[in-house]
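Is this the right way to post structure tokens for a design question? Let me know if I should format differently. Anyway, here goes:
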């Protein structure tokens, strides 16, 4: 292997570089494991008598029961994610082209986007849930009623925005979405969002969780920042709580409620438009470091040209060899023995090659792609069955 620039450090010193390569097969197995764990816990609680004790707690203090349930569910996700990450020797919050850092402007517009989705699609979300109940299914939204200790109610309302924004983002964006990147950015966002929505196991949250997952996943993919998803998820849950409380105001006249509905809808639509407008412009200026691989059929070496290029837009289509740096310095290259291609593919997960007139990802040609597709289908079916079971009260 001939060393020509700093990019080869990833190849010659892999112990110092963490590629955070979550494979698609691995992350889908991780998702299926979590589904099985969530199905097994109620059974174990029932056999050990824990369920009866929890029902007794719920009868006296609903919010204490809710806090316990939240801690158990989030604990399962956290432990599963940490164990899986340790097995893969990766960091789900950084590396592999992603970082975890505070970036005020995209986070601000991301919060506007997610709050706009909450307001604009809450009616569709409620109608979908209520329509399920018309067919004799459980799932209609219950009115917001405070029961039990105000102290535990406050604890619950504080934990709902906090726990999922860290733990669920670690699992669904930090692990699952990144592991599905081999299918392309768009597919990874859509599939992980569907998994995210179905994972909640009920119809009350299905629509908004899917749309919210699309927004959060898309913003995380564009910014390359896991913290972007954490902040958006936090404000999504916080805004949902506040919106439910305000929407349940009693003693208001029908006219006042109508004015409130119109005002919130206009505000939500404005936030949605502003958020979408900002990230469309953001996407046109995203530049990512990646490599283009080509090989000479008459020799035993291939050439890797590394640099920065636009993720979207004309520049990527017009420039077959990308800029070597953000400052547009001279192009750099690595000459690599083809026998080392497997190692190269591992440490350059976004590498591409020019094939049949278009750039395609090297890792998209992996043999396990068919297995990954089959496992994704199996996982979706299991999740759908779980949602259907909840509709019938199982």
């Amino acid at each position: 292997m001939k060393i020509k620039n700093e990019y080869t450090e990833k190849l010659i010193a892999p112990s110092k570089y963490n590629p955070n390569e979550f494979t698609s097969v691995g992350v889908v197995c991780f998702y299926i494991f979590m589904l099985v764990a969530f199905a097994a816990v109620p059974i174990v609680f029932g056999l050990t008598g824990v369920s009866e004790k929890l029902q007794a707690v719920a009868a006296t203090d609903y919010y204490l029961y809710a806090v316990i349930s939240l801690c158990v569910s989030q604990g399962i996700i956290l432990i599963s994610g940490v164990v899986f990450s340790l097995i893969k020797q990766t960091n789900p919050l950084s590396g592999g082209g992603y970082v975890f850092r505070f970036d005020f402007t995209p986070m601000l517009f991301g919060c506007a986007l997610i709050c706009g989705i909450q307001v604009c699609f809450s009616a569709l979300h409620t109608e979908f849930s209520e329509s399920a109940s018309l067919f004799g299914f459980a799932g209609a939204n219950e009115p917001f009623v405070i029961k039990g200790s105000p102290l535990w109610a406050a604890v619950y309302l504080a934990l709902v925005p906090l726990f999922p924004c860290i733990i669920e983002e670690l699992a669904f964006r930090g692990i699952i979405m990144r592991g599905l990147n081999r299918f392309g950015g768009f597919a990874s966002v859509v599939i992980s969002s569907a998994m995210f929505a179905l994972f909640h196991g009920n119809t009350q949250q299905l629509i908004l969780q899917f749309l919210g997952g699309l927004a959060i996943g898309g913003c995380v993919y564009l910014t390359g920042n896991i913290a972007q998803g954490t902040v958006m998820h936090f404000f999504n849950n916080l805004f949902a709580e506040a919106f439910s409380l305000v929407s349940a105001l009693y003693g208001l006249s029908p006219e006042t409620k109508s004015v409130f509905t119109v005002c919130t809808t206009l505000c939500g639509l404005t936030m949605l438009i502003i958020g979408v407008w900002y990230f469309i412009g953001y996407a046109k200026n995203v530049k990512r470091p990646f490599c283009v691989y080509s090989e000479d059929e008459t020799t035993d070496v291939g050439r890797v040209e590394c640099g920065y290029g636009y993720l979207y837009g004309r520049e990527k289509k017009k420039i077959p060899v990308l800029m070597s740096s953000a400052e547009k310095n001279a192009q750099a290259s690595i000459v690599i023995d083809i026998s080392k291609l497997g190692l190269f593919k591992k440490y350059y997960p976004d590498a591409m090659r020019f094939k049949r007139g278009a750039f395609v990802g090297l890792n998209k040609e992996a043999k396990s792609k068919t297995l990954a597709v089959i496992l994704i289908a199996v996982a979706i079916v299991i999740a759908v069955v779980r949602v259907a079971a909840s509709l019938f009260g199982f």
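Format looks fine. Someone answered above. Worth noting: DSSP finds 14 helices and five strands in the chain. The CA atoms of residues 207 and 256 lie 28 Å apart.
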